[in-house]
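Issue 218. Parser rejects a valid record. Input:
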Amino acid sequence: MLATWAMVVGILALLSMGLEDRLAPISIAVPGTSSAEAGELLHQRFGDAVPVAILLTGPRAELDRQGPRLVAALRRTGEARVLSPWDPEAATPALRPSPRSALVAVDFARPEEEALTKVVPLTERIVGETVSEPVEAHLSGLSVIARAIRDASLHATHRAEMIALPVLILVLLLVFRSPIAAALPLAMGAATVMSGRGLLALATEVMPINSLGVAISSMMGLALGVDYALLMVSRYRQEREAGAGHEAAVGVASNVAGRTIVFAGGTLAVAMTTAALLAPGGLLGSVAAGVVIAGVLSVLLAVSALPALLELVGPHLERWRLPSRSRREGGGLVGASQRLIARPAVAIPLVLLAVLALARPAIALQMGPPDVRQLPASDPARQSFEAVQRAVGPGWAAPFVVIASANEGVVSEPERLRAIVRWQRRLARSPEVAAVIGPAAFGGDEEMAKARKAYREAPRQLDDVEGALADLRRGLRRARDGVADMRDGMRSGAAGARRLGDGAREAQEGAAELEDGLGRATQGSRELARGLDRAVEGATRLAAGQRELSAGAERLAAGLATLDSSVRAAVEQVEVFGDQMRGWSELVSSLSEPAERAARELEIAIEELEAMGVGRSDPRYAALASAMRAASAAMTGGTGANAGFIPALRSGQRQLVESMEAMAKMPEELAAEL
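Output the parser choked on:
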């Protein structure tokens, strides 16, 4: 039995390592209340949010240099919504109460469970990397204060245990007068505390456990473990003093005291479980879990491990006993208590009076949620809270959040927006309100009217653009077909035509991507219309989008004009090429007569040559020579109509080459224009 319990306690003690990092912040949310419903609505519509307030104090120049750097670093995390005095469109005078102080309000899109373990350390790291002397940074907010309360509670619990242990040792020595007898209850209390922390670490996997539950579990575990062990050891000693043997005394103590211990521990566990089930919210759940774990563990150790210990050390329980007056002498506190117990009519009123005197300070007990005042004055979190309170007021550390939701339609309807703005301005006029940030902070009725008008016109403008792009796509398809026909008729320009085809396909893909982008833009505009409560950011983006749309329309018109001029130039070049081809045809026709004449002269020359004998004395030699000279002149020389066939052919060839080169460049030029 002892070996089993030693193994169980050791394993649970190992599991308790790192328990502090698994603890949840103390929550005071009560299901079913209006605040709980608002919190759920806030989570559904705006997502997770962990607010943190950062106060910067220092010289004005350094604030204006380091402040924007801090804001940029926070936004680079991708999960922080930042409100700062360096944002002109959303700034409020309350964020810059003086030239030497500035407040940065941050909302981290993280679950509340990660507030203590991830959000606060991340904020501290970013502040440490971006803020330096002479500027000082003070972090505050519910998460910062909750972490400080957690650390302070755990530290106080550990310190209380360290104080309670020597006090318990002294009390147990005074009661038992034996160090061995005093060590048994102390060992049971220590085993209950260590095992309880391990079970709480396991419980964090199925339910939120906060620092209050850990503190209650430690204190109750120490108290119950010692109390139940004290009851059983006292019973064992009584049986031994009455003359019972060792085995018999252990049996009686296990049976009689064991029933009392089980009944007491079971009653406590049932009472705390019932209270946790009936109490609103989850604040008592962690406390109940700590008490139930401590109670069950102390009972199990008392009825199983402690009898095994008594079996081993029972015969040596009175060894090294401290000297004391015998009870039979009736001296000391023991004798006085025995005489008082013998007179219950006197004892009961005295005990009640003592209990009432001890309970009297409870009259001044102030109930409330976790508060920064629970921290010592030297705690950095409390000092930062007080610095924020002095600079901009206490509300920035824990601001009120009001959710306006439409049961039907959208909240951005003009009448609803005007009602929200009126309510916000009326609330801001209250002397107890430092600042209100909402739709009214981002522009008046005139700006809201312009934004609504722009939102209404945006879909129509996008439809017009889609129609123009549809015409453009049809024109591009016709241009693509024309280019394909031109490519078929110009085999020598195949390479350029292929590049033109690739360009046309890329243009078509770009048009498809543009159409898809416009579809997403249309959907985005509808979502913007439904979310007009985010007026500032939406109006700014809409204005930028309209400017880009106007610029795009101008570029589109310019591109269409350029494309039209390019196509006209290409047609003119084709007409020039046709004229050149007609000129080439006329040239070939003009060269046919010299060619025929040359052919006739050559035939005459051949006939004369065949009839010619040997030597220049032949009478036909002169005629042959004359015919050969005429043929040569017809083929190579002469002017006017007799310009010569070969030179004219070379000139026409050059003109044809030049025309073909110009035609080959036309697809490239047309592709570049597209």
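Fixed in the parser; the record now loads. The chain has a mean pLDDT of 76.
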